[in-house]
């Protein structure tokens, strides 16, 4: 089975236009881009995919060893790019997928025109000289809770991750999305995500990169977004006046405008 089929890839927009590939974060699927991606269909070839274990991906292809690290997920994105022969593609990754698309940019630099990292974090655990937002014991507790009661963890964590307590429907949607994942798959993905450290990857990503940072994000605080932008050779930071870790759902208009401005600047350079 091809990567396109395995990851339930959908393609819309203009077939002859430069492509954009949108990749969702942990516990989500391609449906999470429904308020952002369609705005680019008039001018771009829009590609969406489900990471392994999410959405309509083919779970029969799941391999514990392959997906024990984030590199396995990044390889899938790279394979989709190759199978569709995407060139001059803008890769848009949310949350952990920001690091995944960065890996693809390093693996296939000649194919990638630019990156958009939405609420990225290269390392979630604090380290000397680095603020990730969590202490090591916080991550241990988070992962232990997830492993012991995934549905309960999802019900508690998803609304906190989403923020926007005055809009409970957003937290409810994210909770439902989390709960659709196989608990064991989710546990391994979470472990690979929250114990990862890809700070060394950032200087290797030598393509124009937009970092979109929410002003109030419990998962990726402002210091993390600033760090990412500063350590990318061609990084730029845009602060979104948005709350929570999922601006593609909570602030889709502002998110879409920022991405459109970035894509427009890329087009101006290459014209």
TrEMBL record:
Pfam families: Abhydrolase_6 (PF12697). Coiled coil: none annotated. InterPro entries: AB_hydrolase_1, AB_hydrolase_fold. Residues 21-255 form the AB hydrolase-1 domain. Belongs to the AB hydrolase superfamily. This is Sigma-B regulation protein RsbQ. It comes from Nocardioides salarius.
């Amino acid at each position: 089975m091809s990567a396109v089929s395995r990851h339930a890839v959908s393609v819309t927009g203009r077939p002859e236009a430069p492509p954009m590939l949108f990749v969702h974060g942990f516990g989500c699927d391609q449906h999470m881009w429904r308020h952002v991606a369609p705005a680019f269909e008039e001018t771009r070839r829009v590609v969406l995919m489900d990471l392994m274990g999410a959405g309509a991906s083919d779970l029969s292809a799941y391999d514990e060893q392959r997906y024990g690290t984030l590199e396995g997920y990044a390889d899938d994105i790279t394979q989709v790019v190759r199978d569709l022969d995407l060139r001059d593609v803008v890769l848009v990754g949310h949350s952990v997928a920001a690091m995944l698309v960065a890996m693809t940019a390093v693996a296939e630099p000649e194919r990638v025109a630019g990156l958009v990292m939405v609420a990225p974090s290269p390392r979630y655990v604090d380290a000397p000289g680095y603020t990730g937002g969590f202490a090591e014991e916080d991550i241990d507790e988070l992962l232990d809770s997830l492993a012991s009661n995934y549905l309960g963890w999802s019900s508690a964590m998803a609304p906190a991750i989403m923020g926007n307590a005055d809009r409970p429907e957003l937290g409810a949607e994210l909770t439902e999305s989390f709960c659709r994942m196989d608990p064991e798959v989710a546990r391994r993905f979470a472990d690979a995500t929250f114990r990862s450290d890809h700070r060394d990857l950032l200087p290797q990503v030598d393509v124009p990169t937009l970092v979109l940072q929410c002003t109030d994000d419990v998962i990726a605080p402002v210091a993390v977004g600033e760090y990412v932008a500063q350590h990318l050779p061609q990084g730029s930071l845009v602060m979104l006046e948005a709350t929570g870790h999922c601006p593609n759902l909570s602030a889709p208009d502002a998110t879409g405008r920022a991405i459109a401005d970035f894509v427009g600047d890329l087009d101006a350079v290459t014209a």
